[in-house]
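Morning!

This is the sequence you dropped in the shared folder:
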Amino acid sequence: MGICRWAEVSELDRLYHDQEWGVPEYDEVRLFELLTLEGAEAGLSWSIILHKREGYRQLFEGFDAAKVARFTPKRIERLVADPAIVRHRGKIVSVVENAKAILRLQEEGTTLGTLLWDLAGGAPRTNRWKAMEEVPASTPESTAMSKALKKRGFAFVGPTTCYALMQAAGMVNDHLTTCFRHREIKQNKGSHPNR
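The structure's back. Tokens below.
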């Protein structure tokens, strides 16, 4: 058994692949982080984003949505100048907008996790890809998720970003069938703690 080819870039990528990618995630803070990082990845490589993850955690207050939602334009300007993260104004502003959208969800009596998992079908799905070329960039589910999130005020959540989020958060198991993690995640997919 091997590993997914994309994880061979660096030791950090491999650790992320071996320990986190594809494991069902329900924690609100972690889902906000994954939503942010997948949005930041647009047009870049995951390896770049992974190497900046600690910078994101520090600069975005540990992904505390209530704190991030209060970021001022002046604070956003400081973030645009900080090399610890991707210095793309639109991506940075989207994190603040997404934090506000998360707070609106909470006011409605729901959570980001509940919304995302409901949009993804409610339970992890295992795919059986044999080669990286088979793995889609987006799916009808990720397109529907993108539309639903945009309707609720989320930004930088296109269908490709949503599918990457679904993969990272274990909503789909897209480890190749030749990867040792495919079987491990399939066997230990678990269920949503609130279901």
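Headline: Confidence is low (pLDDT under 50) at residues 190-195.

More detail when I'm at my desk.
O.
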